[in-house]
Amino acid sequence: MFKFGLIMLLFSLYTPAIGSPETIDSIVVHKRQKTMLLLRDGNIVKAYRIALGKDPVGHKVKEGDKKTPEGTYYIESRKADSKYYKALKISYPNETDRQRASEMGVLPGGLIMIHGLPQDLESVGRLHRLLDWTDGCIAVTNQEMDQLWDLVPVGVPVIIQP
Predict the structure, then answer these.
(1) How far apart are CA 13 and CA 132, in angstroms?
(2) Which CATH class is domain 2-161?
(3) Sign of CA dihedral 59, 60, 66, 67
(4) Tens-digit pLDDT profile for residues 47-79
(5) Which residue among 31, 60, 75, 161 is least crowded, i.e. fewest CB within 10 A of its CB?
(6) Domain parsing of the chain, residue ranges
(7) Is residue 142 helix, strand or coil?
(8) How far, rounded to the nearest angstrom, does the alpha carbon of residue 140 sit from its chain's CA centroid?
């Protein structure tokens, strides 16, 4: 059991990089595997290990539920002056999310981003992925965020799967 745990810890620290740097045309997040893939023409350009919302299982339903949404969105904007280093804003909530929240009598929340680490956690680096710690966002290291910043244009689809 200890050996398996050590192997998983080492894997969680590894960020594979496949292909060459170029702009991408879609992002696919697999919440259960805690991975984010950057794709170009259906081919993986980069793969990242990620941290998610503190309560990652299931779809985000309301503001403050600490869940990372599931569904199809897009990169809505870029934020260079984010408190989490740099950030790419995801278009959550979409119309379906707003309607679901309205039917439940709650607010859907918002400000879901792919972001780097806050200044006080920057030294933690890849170890941040050992826990899900965001309020519903997708977190990577600051060095990885620099790569994303160069590869991901506004408008790219983001598919977030369970």
Answers:
(1) 14
(2) mainly beta
(3) positive
(4) 999 999 999 889 999 999 999 999 999 999 999
(5) 161
(6) 2-161
(7) helix
(8) 7
